[in-house]
Amino acid sequence: VTPEPDRFRRVVSQVGCAIVGQTARLAPADGRIYAVRDTTATVESTPLIVASILSKKLAAGLQSLVLDVKTGSGAFMADEADARALARALVDVANGAGLPCSALLTDMSQPLAAEAGNALEVANAVRFLKGESAGTRLHRVTLALCAEALVQAGLAGNADDGEALAARALASGAALERFGAMIAGLGGPADFVERMDAYLPAAPVVRPVAALSAGIVAGMDTRALGLAVVQLGGGRSVPG
């Protein structure tokens, strides 16, 4: 649900952050152009991907932008060289348009956490903010992205200082408190972080799936895992 602009502005002003989706009024031509790309085999065209992503960012009037460009089996750009080229193009075009921008290349050859699915990932995010994921890949990627954002905003002089600031916000509970305030400000339950199990839905069927033999996991098809989550109801199989 996308909040009204007045509520969005109020939450950002009072809390300092908000998570929202774009409205149909933001870069409205992008959807039509994407439909043409789908019928002309140009969905994977790097210049058109750059135009699609940055049209929305530039139209929103951002002051700075940090991008997380994925690579690996679960990413749109599975090949690292292609992902690196996309990241470079995004940064170059954004900076050329007057939008300070940086990008991190992160690996999606395995999940960032032990959960996959809408409610499960929300619960994992809350546990992360409670300090239960220290030292994990999720922890490292999150701190790296936060550091870039803090440097872009002029709140940290370099990435190391930015990571230290983000780590302190996690350790002190300030990040969790701010997340809860954001949820309440956007119309969610005020006690969500304390009672998330009461609000997050549970699957109607819960069934353990055990390995057929002993061994060590040496690799994972993250794309197949994501498609399985979609088939189980954790995503859309058609646009809209």
Note the quaternary state here: single chain
- Shape verdict: globular
Q: Give the neighbour order of strands across the main sheet.
A: 1-2
- Residue fraction in strands: 5-15%
Summed up, the domain count is 2
Low-confidence stretches: none
Beta-strand segment tally: 2
> What's the N-to-C terminus distance?
13 Å
Q: Give the second-level CATH assignment, the architecture of the largest domain.
A: 3-Layer(aba) Sandwich
Q: Find the CATH superfamily of the largest domain.
A: Nucleoside phosphorylase/phosphoribosyltransferase catalytic domain
Keywords: Glycosyltransferase, Transferase
Domain Glycosyl transferase family: 2-176
GO biological process, one term: pyrimidine nucleoside metabolic process
Organism: Aureimonas ureilytica
Summarize the structure.
This protein has helices at residues 5-15, 29-39, 46-60, 80-96, 118-129, 137-152, 159-172, 174-185, 196-199, 222-234, and strands at 65-71, 101-107. The protein is mainly α. It has a two-stranded parallel ribbon.
